[in-house]
Design brief:
This protein has helices at residues 2-25, 34-46, 69-81, 86-90, 132-135, 151-168, 190-195, 254-265, 307-327, 347-358, 378-387, 417-431, and strands at residues 50-52, 99-104, 111-117, 175-181, 204-210, 219-225, 229-238, 276-285, 295-304, 331-340, 365-371, 391-397. The protein is of the alpha/beta class. 55% of the residues are buried. 35% of the residues lie in helices and 21% in strands. Bound molecules: zinc ion. Zinc ion binds next to loops.
């Protein structure tokens, strides 16, 4: 049977590559994945899955860092002009591009969820002639948006897995849930899907990423620890303009308030219980040389090795921003535009997946839990499943990376999509009592 599955995945590889290339060409960034999500929805429906979409799949009030309504509207139109189904796109109005698909199997049993992220990066793809998407004619035609993190590959894997599991369903016990998540970049999409119930009554959850720490063929990392918890904030400081020559005393200098805040944010005391980070990555203020600056904007982020450590950073940051604004007689507003909890894979699940993977010739170097030391909002979903008493893990599938993630030359070896899909099917089959 195993060889049959291996052969089926091999047969599906050309379709996976076609899908990946199509998504790569029409790359869509966070909350604008109208074309991607509607293609996914149409295919899953065709395969017999029942879908949860739109406002039922993404809690609008929990959305973080969504583009303005007019920008979203323009993307809806763009998606339709690029071949998306207008009715499906209309159902995602407002950027509600997340969805999940359920498939009951042949009898009662656990619910197994797989999560695939769909968004591309705000990046300009290289025009280097040697870059494979340029050679193959599938480089992004959506200016300033590029799949530089392999999420195009993840969606292709997800649809192949959907097809294979639909064929197997009668021999399995339990149910399958495939979660297609928007806006992973900037860690914005998981929380509103969790709030809408995407992991409710989920017993097992698995997330997958091509590459990241698994940067060679045959390497598989079956679990992750030290996902950094993080918060992304936009801070606006409001002062008062006045004449810099005659009335400087009448103004309220938002530029100086922001500078005081930025310096002191970077001076937050380190925490004794683990690593923390803070970066004010952008600061803009003022209007003209002879005007007391009435406005300032800061984009900042905090991180922590645990959710608690990140909470410490955000509470200190809030105190400092408030104090700096008050010191200069200004007011301020903070908006959260992204964030995720920390997380750690469930060891029992990691062990099971390691032994399933070791039986696959495609993986020559199978490893257990390793440090992630970045942020990934899959941790938000996994932590919620674990809190409910379930298990979860995040696997990184080895591939040759042409350049680092988020680099304009990023690319991976498409042949490695096949072992990733095969492993996911084997894992689900194992947990839902199918053939070994
Ligand atoms: Zn990624």
């Amino acid at each position: 049977m195993s060889d049959t599955l291996n052969q089926k995945v091999k047969d599906l590889l050309p379709a996976m590559i076609r899908c990946r290339r199509d998504l790569h060409k029409y790359a869509e960034s966070g909350w604008t994945e109208f074309r991607t999500a509607s293609l996914v929805a149409a295919r899953l429906k065709e395969l017999g899955y029942s879908l949860t979409t739109g406002a039922a799949a993404v809690k609008k009030e929990s959305m973080m860092g969504a583009p303005a309504p007019n920008v979203l509207k323009a993307h809806q139109e763009r998606a339709v002009s690029q071949g998306a189904d207008p009715a499906l796109v209309a159902g995602m109005e407002g950027g509600l591009t997340g969805l999940w698909a359920d498939l009951p199997c042949g009898g009662p049993g656990p619910r197994f969820a797989l999560r695939f992220d769909m968004d591309a990066n705000d990046a300009v793809e290289t025009d280097a002639p040697g870059h494979v998407p340029n050679k193959g004619g599938f480089a992004s035609i959506n200016k300033g948006v590029m799949h530089a993190c392999a999420h195009d590959g993840h969606v292709a894997i997800g649809l192949a897995v959907a097809e294979l599991l639909a064929e197997l369903k009668d021999s399995l016990k339990g149910s399958i849930r495939l979660i297609f998540q928007p806006a992973e970049e900037g860690v914005r999409g998981a929380a509103p899907m969790v709030d809408a119930g995407c992991v409710r009554e989920v017993d097992f959850i698995l997330g997958v990423h091509m590459g990241v720490k698994a940067d060679k063929k045959g390497l598989l990392i079956c679990g992750a620890r030290k996902f950094l918890a993080t918060s992304k904030w936009d801070v606006r400081i409001q002062g008062k303009s006045s004449h810099a020559g005659s009335d400087p005393h009448m103004g309220r200098n938002a530029l100086l308030a922001a500078c005081a805040a930025a310096l002191n944010l970077h001076a937050i005391s380190r925490h004794g219980e683990g690593p923390t980070r803070i970066t004010v990555g952008k600061l803009e203020a003022g209007q003209g040389r002879n005007v007391i600056p009435p406005n300032a904007f800061m984009a900042l982020e905090t991180r922590g090795a645990t959710t608690e450590l990140n909470d410490y950073m955000t509470s200190e940051a809030a105190r400092i921003i408030k104090a700096a604004a008050e010191m200069w007689g200004c007011t301020y507003a903070v908006s959260t535009v992204g964030g995720t909890k920390s997380g750690e894979s469930s060891e029992a699940m990691v062990d099971e997946i390691c032994s399933l993977a070791r039986a696959m010739p495609a993986f020559s170097d199978v490893r257990g839990i390793e440090d992630f030391t970045g942020s990934e909002d899959f941790a938000h979903m996994m932590t919620e499943v674990q809190r409910q008493g379930g298990l979860g893990t995040y696997i990184q599938v080895g591939t040759i990376l042409k350049a680092g993630h988020h680099n304009d030359h990023f690319d991976f070896d498409e042949d490695d999509l096949a072992p990733a899909a095969e492993l996911l099917v084997r894992v689900v089959r194992h947990y839902l009592g199918g053939k070994k």
